[in-house]
Amino acid sequence: MQSLQHLHLALPRLAQFYLKAIFVFPQAITMTFLTDEQRLRMLANGTARTRGETIDPLPVVKLYTLDAGAAWLLTELDADEDRAFGLCDAGTGSPELGQVSLSALEGVRGPRGMRIVADPHFKPRQPLSGYLADAQRDGSIND
Fold it and tell me: In angstroms, what CA-CA distances link 132 with 14, 20, 44, 95, 122?
């Protein structure tokens, strides 16, 4: 298992892995992080972007580490139901838009062995572009 402490040391390699990795996994993996409603909204957003529509949706789900400073505000899900798109913050002061593999996140553990979880209380207050501007200004996702 990977730890966030170990990930911090290998961030450039990991960032490339997350941006380039393509996995095909059973739908059950997405269910760990996503409700059925969230999954359907993210798939619809992903389909819209694939069709070439210009979209700036509200984040659908916030994932975060319980024992480290990483967070993800996700808006879209590819048809493979593993690659998600959104604002990714590895806790290093450089949040950016990108893709992440939900199945890869499933295996990540923080320094105290805690998993990444979905924030059940997250209510988006602005479109993804607003969160991006705030995170770039502040160096982290603060919501």
Answer: 21, 21, 21, 8, 16
Strand-pairing partners, residue 47, are none
81-92: per-residue pLDDT in tens? 999 999 999 989
Q: Taking phi first (over 0 means left), then psi (-120 to 50 degrees means alpha), and beta for anything else, what does residue 37 get?
A: alpha
Residue 2's DSSP bridge partners are 108
**36-50 pLDDT, tens per residue?**
999 999 999 999 999
Look up residue 37 and give its two tokens: 């409603």
pTM of the model: 0.78
d(CA 129, CA 31): 26
